[in-house]
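QA checklist item 7 of 12: single-chain prediction sanity check.
[x] sequence parsed
[x] length recorded as 143
[x] structure emitted
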Amino acid sequence: MKIIPYEKQYRDDMIFMVLEAKNALGRVPRLNEDLLDVDRHYLLSGDMFWLAIDEDDRVIGCIGFNRYGPDSAKLHRLYVKYNRKRQGIGTRLLETAEQCMKGKGYRYAVAHLGRMEEYFESRQFYPKQGYTEYEPGYLRKAL
């Protein structure tokens, strides 16, 4: 498995992986508009987006971030393919994003969790990675 900066050639495979991941969580698969144009929503503004790619050149995970105030960046779209969870992929994606944020001078990484019933895995994952709740539904970690 390797982590790479987003490449357009993987767009459809990434979208399919995200929809599968949502379905496996029992959520109605809905497409996030930012995934249709990662360049516009992330890269052109200096933010970042990465993909986890397996040995068969398929997308098995993703993560991105956007500026969120003067000293923070907000994480978006951390997904791991449903049958590849608990293999360290999410942790590696998160570490990649955090290192980049730190390199860009951000002091904090922020994650918004959404509704409890939809994001129960995130509510377990982020605290294990050092994130703490600073207001309802928002977690933060000093970088």
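[x] summary fact logged: The helical segments are 11-24, 38-41, 89-103, 120-128.
[ ] second reviewer sign-off
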